[in-house]
Amino acid sequence: METVSLIREIYREAFRDLGHFLIRNYFKMFALFSLAMFIVVLYAFIFRLATGFAFD
User: Fold this and answer.
1) If both were cysteines, with which of 14, 17, 37, 48 could 53 make a disulfide (CB 3.0 to 4.6 Å apart)?
2) pLDDT value at position 23?
C-alpha cells in the first residue's frame, strides 16, 4: 500500500511541474508573438507616414 502512495505522489509532482512548464512556455511564446505583431504594425504605420499616405 505504501508503494502505491509513493508512486501516486511521484506522478502528482511530475504533472504539477509539467503544467507550470507548459504554461510558462506558452506565455513566453505568446509574448514574443505579440511583440512581433506590434513591430509589424509600427513598421506599416511608419511606412505609410514616410510615403505620404493620406489619413482621411
Assistant:
1) 48
2) 83
